[in-house]
Amino acid sequence: MLYFIPTPIGNLGDISFRALELLKTCEIFFCEDTRISKSLLLSLSHKFKIDFKTKKMISFHSHNEKEILKNLNPEIFSQDIAFLSDAGMPGISDPGYALVDFALKNGIKFEVLPGANAALVALVSSALSEKEFVFMGFLANKGKDRIKDIQRALNHSYASIIYESPKRILSLVEQISFIDENREIFAIKEISKKFETKFKGKAKEVFNELKEANLNGEWVLVISKNHQNLNHNSLLESDILELDIPLKTKSKLLSKINGKSPKEIYAKLLLSQN
């Protein structure tokens, strides 16, 4: 059997009893990073007084997974094998998807264990959605693609969940605030760790708080749904922002989409150019 085992995203105590049992019995580990997996097993052995036997670890990540799967003999799965990502649920903004697909196509028996997942912890903590949501993972790092991703998140008729690094969280919230400063958002860092911290409020308020905060750690951002239901617009704000037209004209077009005052938009656009 092939097992996809979620690993703790913060507190080691978040590991499940079933996961511990499988970590003891599986003979081979596919790992996003073998060094991190070895460190995890060592920490778990100290905490739970478990003697993990020496395991064969195979590096398996986004840069080498195609090559490994191309040369992988399905016969290897005649023994118990585990897949471990660095932290959290395999396949959710982490390697693992390709291995699941391989198992399905080759008739390999597998199970995905339930466990730690930062997106769902953030969503429940935000109280911004009772049922429907959109998970966007990591956005494009920069440029026009990033602006379009942010605009998509703001246009969704469901709450949007975004993963972000400490280097970009402040600029992300600033961009959201520029487009819709009153949009309610929730930001959480270091989930399940000692210094877990939460911020909730209007985008402008959260931005001002984050400017004074320690931003170290991994972040999850939840954006409330678009109550104005702008999804029917084929033209996005990001499309207008990219146009080489006078600022006053651009402000009027943006006003047609978001309902804000053209003067207010013009003032912000003018400020952004300085």
Automatic annotation (TrEMBL):
Keywords: Methyltransferase, Transferase. It is an enzyme of class 2 (transferase). Its EC number is 2.1.1.198. It comes from the Bacteria. This is 16S rRNA (Cytidine(1402)-2'-O)-methyltransferase.
